[in-house]
Design brief:
mainly beta; Immunoglobulin-like; 2 domains
Length: 239
């Protein structure tokens, strides 16, 4: 059984290397001398549309009480402006499934965590591992420059849409408009901060496309706008 699992992992790694076309990576930095951590982490976009945080096979750290993985705009998710998004769906555990503390098996090897579809490569500069139970940062990665043959396609927002499309008002209370001055055909999706799509309008040509937010909670939302091969994502705040 173990041999079959290793073979499957090898095949998966090969597929990853073929599909991955643009990524940003860095080495883990230990946040506290008591919690060893090492290896490589990256954000990777693939041509099939997948977006993931990847810990490479050299990753290793010690057990913790409910470890979680985030992408963040700062190296500490507790700081103002981090806009951190958790990418783990459950706690980060060691290879044999244990969740013990000191003296138990370390957490090692390659791991993958999906990123919300609205996130762009340049949106977040850090990967952070946080120990939730004791509110302690375990370690973080400083993400480097884009690397890969298709980074211009997969990771960069288009200037044309940025110049012609805007949101008003922002922040807002009950509704807002996507203003499309050029009236180019667009598809507009609204996502909550954890990546769930809450509204969609396809192939809108309206100069002002109105969206009601009356059924949504206050908070931060992401508005993804696509036109042909162009895409931008704008942040919207509902009070």
């Amino acid at each position: 059984m173990k041999t079959k699992l290793l073979l499957l992992l090898s095949i998966t790694l090969c597929a990853f290397q073929v599909n991955a076309q643009c990524s940003r990576s860095g080495s883990f930095i230990q946040s506290d001398p008591a919690y060893s951590i090492s290896g490589t982490g990256n954000i990777t976009f693939e041509t099939n549309g997948d977006k993931n945080v990847i810990f490479e096979s050299d990753f290793a750290t010690v057990q913790g009480a409910d470890l979680r993985v985030y992408i963040s705009k700062t190296d500490d998710i507790a700081t103002a402006g981090s806009d951190a998004i958790e990418v783990t769906t459950s706690q980060l555990i060691n290879d044999d499934g244990g969740t013990g503390g000191a003296g138990t098996s370390p957490i090692t090897g390659m791991k993958s965590f999906p990123i919300p579809p609205s996130v762009e490569l340049h949106d977040f500069d850090y990967i952070v591992i946080q120990c939730i139970t004791i509110n302690e940062r375990w370690g973080h990665v400083v993400l480097g420059a884009n690397q890969g043959p298709d980074c211009a396609t997969l990771g960069v927002s288009e200037n044309t849409l940025n110049e012609t499309v805007s949101l008003y008002p922002n922040p807002t209370n009950e509704q807002f408009e996507v203003r499309n001055d050029s009236q180019i055909p667009m598809s507009i999706s609204i996502y909550d901060i954890i990546g769930n799509r809450v509204q969609l309008v396809e192939k809108s040509h309206l100069k002002k496309q109105v969206f009601s937010l009356s059924n949504l909670n206050s908070g931060v939302y992401l508005v993804e706008i696509k036109s042909d091969n162009q895409k931008i994502v704008k942040k919207l705040i509902k009070r």
